[in-house]
Amino acid sequence: MSEAADRDPLVLIVSGPSGSGKSTLVQKILEMPGTMASRDEFLEHARVFGKHSYGTPKKWLAESKKQGKDMVLEIDVQGAEQVKQKLPESVAIFILPPSREELERRLRHRGQDSGEEIARRLSKASAEIAASKKLYDFYVVNDDVERAGREAQAILTALRCSSAWGRGRWNQVLASFGG
User: Model-level pTM?
Assistant: First the structure.
């Protein structure tokens, strides 16, 4: 029996304010080995800053389960809350910038947003950080991308070794010893 057949895939949620380094840390995790909303085809969906709509199709979760692969969702706090309601076993990591000042510096350095947009993103970051306290299982402070990447990878490794997640495989091994 393959490892994929022994367990459901892990659903890992990664969130954080714009400029916190979510995308970079998701890449570190991945280095380890018309309207769909009205038809309820999204695991989560949202409209951000009144401009952009996005979502995670439910079929991605079904495909992940079919292939026995873990699923990493890079989504905002609103989306994370929706996923946690539908999949309480999912694990959520919140990426924090080292400080408000550093977050503002990063946003300005990107050169993508107006001063008004940066102020709006900083305000949203404060709200997301406040909301994160009741929703997230882990926090990673992204003050050093290599260290923060190792922490994110360590969280995933620990989860893969946890009794709740690995029980099916462990039971198979124990059974081979007559236990």
Answer: 0.75
Contacts of 63 by beta carbon, 8 Å cutoff, 6+ apart: none
Q: Mind listing the pLDDT tens digit for each residue in 10-49?
A: 787 888 888 888 888 877 877 776 464 455 555 665 555 5
**Structure confidence by residue, pLDDT tens digits, 73-127:** 888 888 899 889 988 989 999 999 999 999 999 999 988 889 999 999 999 999 9
Taking the CA of residue 13 as centre, how many other CA atoms within 13 Å lie in the half-sphere pointing to its CB? Answer: 29
**Of 10, 24, 73, which Cα lies nearest the Cα of 46?**
73
Q: Could you give the maximum distance between any two Cα atoms of the chain, in Å? A: 66
Domain 3-33+70-176: CATH architecture, name and number where available:
3-Layer(aba) Sandwich (3.40)
User: How is the chain split into domains, by residue range?
Assistant: 3-33+70-176
Ramachandran region, residue 96 (left: φ > 0; alpha: ψ -120 to 50; beta: rest): beta
pLDDT of residue 43: 61
Which residue is it, tokens 């495989």?
Answer: 169
Q: How far apart are CA 122 and CA 126, in angstroms?
A: 6
